[in-house]
């Protein structure tokens, strides 16, 4: 599932490629992906200009000039792709927006995810954004706040990092990488983590997410034919999906075990 770096990369591309463009038509090929009829969606967005692209957690908010928004969650397999006028989608999109320029924006494989329409641009009025934890890269997410949040929780650290009500936007890939950087085993109890370890965990969380965003995350699907950014962080993964391969630090084989119902990747020598 895309996490903060992947969704932030898509947000960056949407801002670059489609902000300011005007929708001329909308094709809905998978009605289950949307929360109103295709006719209603088209009536609300046809002729409207995209004015703002935002991200909250793993969710994109695309706002229009008539004070409406599309709220997009890709879940496991979904992705967005931009097409120049001469390009034809190789696959059938779930939803396709065509702009007055002849360019198109497709949302693909929105099977578990959704594209929901709301007559608002206010994030506080969008139900899908309720009950989300703080953004880990926001200025007010300080070490002191992180320490306070941890002090209120129990259980294993990896599932907690992935709990969207605790911190918004971290999933399986980056929780593994953050914990490896912190030298903390994924099944460590939160109550056993020392103050020094919390400081290191906070710094690793910040640095890894920022580096992954700068490198374009680990998405396989390029946003556009001239997209040279997306997926650039994949070669930098140190433990995620490297089961049996040698740890880059000590040479010990990376191991995998189920922690909180998800695969955890870790080095049994470097992490404690």
Outline the structure in words.
With 272 residues, this protein is an alpha+beta fold. The chain folds into 2 domains: 4-129, N-terminal domain of MutM-like DNA repair proteins (Alpha-Beta Barrel); 143-266, Orthogonal Bundle (Helicase, Ruva Protein, domain 3). It has helices spanning 4-17, 38-45, 143-151, 157-162, 172-182, 195-215, and strands at 23-28, 50-56, 59-64, 69-73, 79-83, 95-99, 104-108, 114-118, 255-259, 262-266. A hairpin with a 2-residue loop joins strand 9 and strand 10. Helix 1 (4-17) packs parallel to helix 6 (195-215) and helix 5 (172-182) packs across helix 6 (195-215). It starts with a helix and ends in a 6-residue tail after the last strand.
Give a brief outline of the structure:
The protein is an alpha+beta fold and 272 residues long. It folds into two domains: 4-129, Alpha-Beta Barrel (N-terminal domain of MutM-like DNA repair proteins); 143-266, Helicase, Ruva Protein, domain 3.
Topology summary:
Elements: H1 4-17, E1 23-28, H2 38-45, E2 50-56, E3 59-64, E4 69-73, E5 79-83, E6 95-99, E7 104-108, E8 114-118, H3 143-151, H4 157-162, H5 172-182, H6 195-215, E9 255-259, E10 262-266
Please describe the biggest sheet, giving its number of strands, its sense, and whether it closes into a barrel.
4 strands, antiparallel
* CATH architecture annotation name of the largest domain: Alpha-Beta Barrel
How many DSSP-defined strands? 10
- The oligomeric status of these chains comes to single chain
Q: What is the arithmetic mean of pLDDT?
A: 97
CATH class of the largest domain: Alpha Beta
